[in-house]
Amino acid sequence: MKACGVSGAEKEVALLELPEPSSPQPGQILVAVDAAGVGPWDELEIDASWDVGLRPPAALGVEGAGKVLAVGAGVTRFAVGDRVLAHEAPLPGGSGFWAERVLINEDHAAACPPGLDAANAAALPVNGLTALQALEKLDLSRGQRLLITNGGGGTGALAVQLAAAQGIEVTATASAAAAERLLGLGATEVVDYHDPNWSAKVRGGFDAALIIAAGTAAAALPLVRDGGRLCSLTSDAPPEERGITSWDLYIEPNGAQLAQLAEQAAAGTLQLAPQPLPLSEGPAAFTRVVAGQAGGKKIVLIPA
């Protein structure tokens, strides 16, 4: 089957021809991939900084959407022909979503609602689950204030929408070009992160901060009130001070949470910005995303 990934000791991302996945084992489903998400985290899979169980030669990619081709013993939630989306890590088949077919666990998949097309479904899992899990852990209430750094990225834009829907007052850092979009998604204030003094331009006393831009935790911490909370998605949570709880968060696959997000996206209450590209452009797309040159769009690869 056609794929995009790594061949082995060679770390360069390239187009590949891979053997078909094995038949699904108990609790697993085989999916024909219609679209697969690309994110900066995919770079971590190559050198096992994020060990997702790749067994090269293998496709990269830990999220996508498609149709069920086969089910293993004991699978009850899905049948052949069902449309699903999923975030999967580790990958039970040793190979990822940047391929024509992928093997995943039933528990980590969600039904794809009729109103959600493959490109939007594939753009949702990692960014959506990360935003949702971070907000659940921050545990803010209506009327409280949240600072989000890199609100214009895939995770940040979804976090802005999810938080605003809960009545949380969101201030986001982003480029000036993204300001109007984020205000439309529910942010109360958008600050240009290009300004080296951006942290002096906002009113402090935030109940919590969600760190999505690497290197911004130190600037954000003084803006959090005593006893507040700081959650970092960039593995750089600062030491706790002034009673502020500070931690790093790492995404976990969760089919039930993903189903909730998919329903919201299908209903139009969560807006996504996918940019579909053919699988043949996978290596170039990977390079763009890792370099931070996706322009606020979530690139998804289409195998067909």
How would you characterize this protein structure?
With 304 residues, this protein is of the alpha/beta class. Helices cover 23% and strands 29% of the residues. It has helices at residues 42-46, 118-122, 125-138, 154-165, 179-185, 217-220, 255-267, 282-290; strands spanning 2-6, 14-17, 28-37, 58-59, 63-71, 83-87, 101-105, 109-111, 145-149, 169-174, 189-192, 206-211, 224-232, 245-248, 274-278, 298-302. Strands 3, 5, 6, 7, 8, 15 and 16 form a 7-stranded mixed beta sheet that branches. Helix 3 packs across helix 4 (154-165). 51% of the residues are buried. The mean pLDDT is 96.
Name the structural class: alpha/beta
* Count of helical regions: 8
The overall pLDDT, averaged over residues, is 96
Which residues sit in consecutive blocks of at least 5 with pLDDT less than 50? none
Task: Describe the main β-sheet briefly.
Answer: 7 strands, mixed
Fraction in beta strands: 25-35%
Distance between termini?
Answer: 11 Å
Radius of gyration: 19 Å
Q: What's the order of the H and E elements?
A: EEEHEEEEEHHEHEHEEHEEHEHE
What is the strand tally?
16
What is the helix fraction of residues, given as a range?
A: 10-25%
Can you give keywords for this protein?
304 residues; alpha/beta; seven-stranded mixed beta sheet; 23% helix; 29% strand
Question: Topology of this protein?
Answer:
Blueprint lengths: L1 E5 L7 E4 L10 E10 L4 H5 L11 E2 L3 E9 L11 E5 L13 E5 L3 E3 L6 H5 L2 H14 L6 E5 L4 H12 L3 E6 L4 H7 L3 E4 L13 E6 L5 H4 L3 E9 L12 E4 L6 H13 L6 E5 L3 H9 L7 E5 L2
Parallel strand pairs: 9-10, 9-12, 10-11, 12-13, 13-14, 15-16
Antiparallel strand pairs: 1-2, 1-4, 3-5, 3-7, 3-16, 5-6, 6-8
